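Bumping my old thread because nobody answered last time. Still need a sequence for this structure:
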């Protein structure tokens, strides 16, 4: 009896296996059958342990026979992942082509890459990426790639306040070399300075004489030319998108190349920030954000860590997924003024969460395309192109414009309790002015009026709505006889206009007060011009260049002056920045750089004898 039951069971198993083998292997049906058998095995496993092992063996025996898969039936890497359900390794079935996690899709060709999940920290940036070769100037009719690149660049600036410029292979190699050289430079300085390498900044200006003693990162001149070329090309592309000539802003920039003995207005800043000191003021902005003052700014870094505020007030990581050959483009205050607000200034800040995860620190290069100090920011080309200039964008010199920005920063710094609020108001102030201004004329809505649909208009837009008898916002027909004054909007516009006028008057008064104070300080420092003493108020230092070139001096030294130079006579060979001189020791012929406080004029014998003879008389009188 037992033998007959065993023979019947074997016959049933053979019939089941032959029935499964007669059908072709279909990924969908196979996955369904596998899921069903796995479900049955799981259900029986909940009953008792003994039956679970039997059902598991039955489920394994009910699978289709293993066949050699063809190229179209090879499993994807995702199908070879281990099962999520735990279990002993001895009872875990081997993965096969007909046993996958989830439904299978048609196989990909061998040339198609398998999608890999991207981490959140390295997600693709929403910024448009434009090649430098596509926006470079050339003679002839504009080609389609140039027009597409100009539109993509300006569209990204309008939507995200930033864009990415991709350099060529040669320029990318220069940028990579510059970043590595800057990192090595700051590490070397940290080791020489006692190991304090939390942060570092080096500013480079073209045209400034560099001697052998001046320690600076290498490749700065090459990086300055490379990033300067990219910034000028981007500025020309912005001008073309505004229906202006490509060279409309060239009168604001330095000549190419620079004239002899002239220092560039633009500046290249190399900075290094460690995880312990993520914020370096003036390089990557503070935690509350910085607004660039110049025309354009280009950033290049070895690791991501720079956030930009979009027009909606949201901060996002702008340099995620960027390589050393990618330059992050931001617009500044000077460009915003000369374009009458059509290209607003961008706010940026360092991202401390990304710097904290990077133990090796972050090295960055920032190129600031600055206008000349004697240039004038004028919006007349914008008017000639047909754009409407809002109120407040008047012609102003670059020096006065920068003084006004510095005055605003001084006011913000004088209120530490409202520092964050004031900086936030700087970012939201243009949007508030745009809401309270007429979009056509730019005048404040001091005549704001409700129309029948519920929207408010004023100025030239109100006249257009009345002439069309249709609302430009909701496209509804309106009744021109039912116009109601919007008292609240008129009061808000009048208040903002009054505050704007008061600020302009305050800046003018502050600028006048600074000039008077400067004239007064010049008169008080004039007697001390020879020795470079400190003024009586203790706030301003004396003249930084009390000595002239080829003048013989004595090194009196300070605590940082090497002992071998103290008391030696030297000749001044050239002047440096911030009151420093390059001297040549007469005794040894060595060159050394010292500040004016470490030097003393050589007194003539007549003066010294006169002082010695007058000293006893003074003592006798006392």
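Sorry it took so long. Here it is:
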């Amino acid at each position: 009896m037992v033998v007959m039951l065993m023979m019947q069971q074997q016959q049933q198993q053979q019939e089941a296996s032959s029935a499964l083998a007669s059908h072709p292997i279909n990924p969908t049906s196979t996955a369904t059958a596998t899921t069903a058998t796995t479900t049955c095995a799981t259900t029986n496993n909940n009953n008792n342990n003994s039956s679970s092992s039997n059902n598991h063996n039955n489920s394994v025996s009910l699978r289709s026979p293993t066949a050699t898969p063809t190229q179209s039936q090879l499993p994807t890497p995702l199908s070879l992942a281990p099962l999520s359900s735990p279990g002993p390794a001895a009872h875990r079935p081997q993965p096969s082509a007909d046993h996958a996690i989830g439904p299978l899709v048609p196989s990909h060709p061998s040339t198609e890459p398998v999608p890999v999940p991207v981490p959140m920290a390295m997600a693709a940036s929403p910024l448009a990426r434009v090649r430098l070769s596509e926006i470079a100037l050339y003679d002839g009719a504009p080609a389609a790639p140039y027009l597409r690149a100009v539109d993509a660049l300006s569209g990204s600036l309008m939507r995200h306040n930033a864009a990415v410029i991709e350099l060529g292979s040669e320029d990318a190699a220069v940028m990579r070399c510059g970043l590595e050289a800057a990192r090595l430079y700051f590490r070397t300085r940290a080791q020489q300075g006692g190991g304090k390498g939390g942060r570092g900044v080096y500013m480079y200006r073209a045209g400034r004489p560099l001697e052998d003693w001046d320690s600076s990162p290498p490749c700065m001149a090459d990086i300055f030319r490379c990033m300067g070329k990219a910034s000028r090309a981007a500025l020309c592309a912005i001008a073309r998108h505004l229906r202006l000539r490509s060279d409309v802003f060239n009168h604001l920039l330095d000549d190419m190349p620079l004239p002899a003995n002239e220092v560039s207005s633009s500046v290249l800043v190399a900075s290094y920030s460690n995880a312990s000191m993520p914020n370096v003021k003036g390089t990557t902005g503070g935690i509350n954000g910085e607004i660039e003052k110049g025309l354009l700014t280009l950033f290049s870094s070895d690791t991501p860590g720079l956030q930009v505020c979009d027009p909606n007030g949201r901060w996002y990581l702008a340099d995620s997924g960027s390589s050393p050959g990618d330059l992050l483009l931001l617009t500044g205050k000077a460009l915003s003024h000369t374009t009458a607000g059509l290209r607003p200034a961008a706010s940026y800040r360092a991202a401390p969460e990304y710097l904290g995860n990077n133990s090796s620190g972050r090295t960055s290069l920032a190129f600031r395309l600055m206008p000349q100090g004697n240039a004038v920011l004028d919006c007349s080309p914008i008017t000639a192109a047909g754009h409407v200039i809002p109120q407040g964008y008047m012609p102003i010199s670059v020096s006065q414009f920068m003084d006004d920005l510095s005055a605003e920063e001084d006011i913000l710094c004088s209120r530490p309790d409202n520092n964050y609020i004031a900086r936030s108001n700087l970012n939201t102030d243009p949007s508030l002015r745009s809401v309270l201004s007429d979009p056509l004329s730019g005048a404040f809505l001091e005549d704001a009026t409700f129309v029948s649909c519920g929207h408010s208009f004023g100025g030239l837009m109100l006249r257009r709505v009345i002439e069309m008898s249709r609302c430009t916002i909701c496209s509804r027909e309106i009744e021109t006889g039912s116009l109601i004054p919007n008292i609240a909007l008129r009061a808000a516009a009048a208040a903002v206009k009054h505050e704007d006028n008061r600020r302009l008057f305050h800046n003018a008064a502050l600028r006048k007060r600074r000039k008077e104070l400067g004239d007064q300080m010049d008169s008080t420092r004039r007697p001390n011009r020879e020795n470079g003493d400190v003024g009586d108020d203790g706030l301003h230092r004396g003249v930084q260049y009390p000595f002239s070139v080829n003048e013989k001096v004595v090194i009196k030294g300070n605590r940082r002056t090497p002992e071998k130079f103290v008391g030696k006579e030297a000749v001044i060979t050239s002047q440096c920045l911030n009151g420093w001189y390059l001297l040549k020791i007469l005794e040894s012929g060595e060159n050394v750089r010292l500040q004016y406080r470490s030097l003393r004029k050589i007194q003539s014998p007549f003066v010294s004898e006169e002082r010695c003879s007058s000293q006893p008389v003074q003592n006798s009188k006392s």
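The chain has a mean pLDDT of 72. Let me know if any region looks off to you.
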